[in-house]
Design a protein that fits this description.
The complex is a heterodimer. Chain A contains eleven helices and 14 strands. By secondary structure, chain A is α/β, with parallel strands linked by helices. Chain A folds into two domains: 227 residues, 3-Layer(aba) Sandwich (Rossmann fold); 67 residues, ACT-like. Chain A, domain 2 (Alpha-Beta Plaits), CATH 3.30.70.1150. In chain A, the strands form three sheets. Chain A has a six-stranded mixed beta sheet with strand order 6-7-8-3-9-10, with helices on both faces. In chain A, strands 2-1-4-5 form a four-stranded antiparallel beta sheet. In chain A, strand 9 and strand 10 form a beta hairpin. Chain A is elongated. Chain B starts with a helix and ends in a 6-residue tail after the last helix. Chain B has one domain. Chain B is mostly helical. Classes of the chains: A alpha/beta, B mainly alpha. Bound molecules: adenosine-5'-triphosphate and magnesium ion. Magnesium ion (MG) binds next to helix 1 of chain A.
Chain lengths: 327, 274
């Protein structure tokens, strides 16, 4: 009932269904609950259509949810809208939501002004933001004339210019080159470190998420299928996947023995780099693996734990969710 | 410690300041966007003037046409100016809503803690003021062309004009709201411009009920002020009451329609998607 005051964002039981005539309804967000503590960067991941944008827009009141509780910095997002909105800013889907016909500075003044930020204090802060984003020399350039990357930086800067404790960034690095993406990430990390901001960032770019986020929330089909520290998610997969490199090809018999014991093992034995890739269910399995290898008369060159990245973890989780959904 | 308190309380900006700045930056936006593309404005003003010239020459050389029979040249100047102003009011609003929805900036306007109304009001009032300057220049040009001179009693004109234009904004809100929900109905915007013209040439004298239509009463009163030289105080009280009632009434209807559209748009997630 009471709004949570100790977290930047608390969502409980949020759900949203889209109904269109002549079409089956789409459950975009299916009763999700999530909390984000102050001063954290949280990644919001999920395949296309998972419900990320819908979730963000419901929190911002740009879409009317069918139900659920949302509190922003302790204020009920619907019943205390003004108080909640003065504490949150958002960049929605890329670089679209700024004025291309206005200059960078004019955009900053405009969007900050919507939240009552301006004057001399504001100007000082905008200047600082331009520096962080490497846009000082673009201050008076019309946004239209900027590169895609700079447009996106301006959009993010406009959201940050509102000086709100909570900021949503929906795919801020979409279509950016490596260098620009890096700069943007660095700027975001700095904002969190120096100003204690709380940032929720949705992205399809796992490298970005792995780089800036401590914690990720993964959505699929409108549900949260994983919500954990990036480290834990990686660890989850690190303990399981092993790559056994072989010095020479396995015999047919050897292959059969392995396949029998580890049905999901992927055996590569086409002459070059013969290997066996296995997912182990628990820690004890490694002994069994060695035993089976000996039985199969395998000539082991090395055993390595596959270094999982977030992308692999993500794909794996989503695949499982799909399988469950269908089964 | 310091960091935590900053985050949990946010920067507290007084509500009055948030409203004022939301209003002010939108007022400024109207100016910036208008001045950034002066040729758009100039070319539409030129078109407006040429259309007027056509009407004027038609009346002058064809003489005794039906138009001149029902209206004086002064009346035509007032009616024509009001038409251009009402088209501006209407299309400014409906196009702006459509464009901002398309650009994604409408969603940002909805995020202001001051509320969308403050932001939108800043833009509309700013834009109307800036456009009015050009409108006055236009009227001067028309007067010079026709050698007929109007009375510029601003104290009488401004209040009557506000309530005369209110229905145009009402229609703008209603049509803009429809565009949010149904999208791609810009062709319909053009139709509305002609409806507005129709409303301004309805002969109120011969059809008293027509005074209930949007803008008709104000149109008649503005003619009395600008062409007839009467002041606000000399106008019949019941006419003024009718002006107020239709002005507020149609604006309220338009806002109600917009409110409905806004709720539908929020439910279907259409505020920012085009
Ligand atoms: N305005 C809308 N009207 C109808 N359906 C919608 C609307 N917006 C989203 N949806 C549907 O809701 C589901 C969730 O969409 P959403 O945009 O939230 O996903 P997402 O996770 O942001 O995807 P992406 O990664 O592609 O941005 C999808 O099936 C989508 O088609
Ligand atoms: Mg999305």
């Amino acid at each position: 009932m009471g709004a949570r005051t100790d977290v930047a964002l608390a969502v409980a039981g949020l759900h949203k269904k889209f109904t269109k005539r002549h079409k089956p309804p789409v459950v975009a967000v299916d009763h999700i609950s999530v909390e984000v503590a102050y001063g954290k960067i949280v990644g919001l991941l999920g395949p296309n259509g998972a419900g990320k944008t819908t979730t963000i827009k419901c929190i911002l009141g740009l879409m009317e949810p069918d139900g659920g509780e949302i509190s922003v910095c302790g204020y009920d997002a619907r019943r205390q809208r003004a108080a909640a909105m003065s504490r949150v800013a958002a960049v929605l889907e890329g670089a679209r939501n700024i004025y291309w016909r206005l200059s960078v500075w004019e955009n900053l003044e405009y969007f900050a002004g919507l939240n009552g930020i301006g004057g001399r204090d504001g100007a000082l802060y905008f200047q600082q933001l331009l520096q962080r984003f490497g846009l000082e020399d673009k201050k008076d350039t019309t946004v239209l004339e900027l590169s895609q990357g700079n447009k996106q930086k301006v959009a993010v800067a406009c959201a940050l210019a509102k000086r709100t404790p909570l900021v949503f960034l929906d795919e801020p690095t979409l279509g950016l080159d490596v260098e620009t993406s890096y700069q943007l990430r660095q700027a975001i990390k700095d904002m969190v470190r120096d100003e204690g901001r709380t940032i929720v960032i949705s992205s399809h770019d796992m490298a970005v998420v792995q780089d800036v986020c401590e914690r990720v929330v993964i959505m699929a089909n409108g549900r949260i299928i994983a919500d954990d520290q990036v480290q834990n998610l990686l660890a989850l997969f690190r303990t399981r996947e092993y790559l056994v490199k072989l010095a020479r090809d396995l015999t047919r018999e050897g292959q059969e023995i392995i396949q029998e014991q580890f049905p999901q093992a992927v055996i590569t034995s086409d002459g070059h780099d013969p290997s066996v890739r296995v997912q182990l269910i628990n820690g004890q399995d490694i002994y069994r693996l060695i035993d089976v290898m000996r039985q199969a008369n395998a000539d082991i060159a090395s055993i390595t734990q596959e270094e999982p990245d977030l992308e692999k973890a993500f794909v794996e989780l989503v695949r499982k969710e799909r399988a469950n959904g269908n089964g | 410690m310091k960091r935590r308190s900053w985050s949990s309380s946010g920067r507290s900006v007084p509500t009055a300041m948030v409203r004022w700045r939301s209003f002010a930056v939108n007022f400024k936006k109207a100016w910036l966007l208008m001045k950034r593309y002066p040729f758009n404005l100039l070319s539409s003003l030129l078109t407006m003037y040429l259309i007027f010239l056509g009407i004027f020459l038609g009346v002058k050389y064809l003489g005794g046409t039906s138009l001149s029979a029902v209206d004086t040249l002064e009346g035509i100047i007032v009616g024509y100016s009001l038409w251009t102003l009402s088209i501006f009011a209407f299309s400014d609003l409906s196009w702006e809503l459509t464009n901002e929805a398309q650009m994604g900036t409408l969603e940002q306007m909805y995020l202001t803690p001051a509320g969308f109304a403050w932001a939108q009001a800043g833009y509309l009032i700013g834009d109307l003021l800036f456009f009015s300057v050009f409108e006055v220049a236009m009227i001067v040009l028309m007067m010079l062309t026709t050698h007929r001179y109007l009375h510029f009693d601003l104290v009488s004109i401004v209040p009557v004009l506000i309530f005369t234009l209110a229905p145009a904004y009402g229609i703008g809100f209603a049509v803009g709201g429809l565009a949010l929900v149904y999208k791609r109905i810009q062709a319909f915007f053009q139709v509305v411009q002609f409806v507005l013209m129709g409303l301004l040439v309805v002969p109120v004298n011969r059809m008293p009920w027509a005074r209930l239509l949007p803008m008709s009463e104000g149109n008649a009163l503005l003619r009395q002020i600008m062409a007839g030289g009467r002041s606000l105080w000399q106008l019949p009280g019941q006419d003024l009451i009718l002006l107020l009632a239709t002005g507020i009434g149609y604006l309220a209807l338009g806002l109600a329609a917009f409110g409905w559209a806004e709720r539908v748009a929020r439910r279907r997630g259409l505020l920012g998607q085009y």
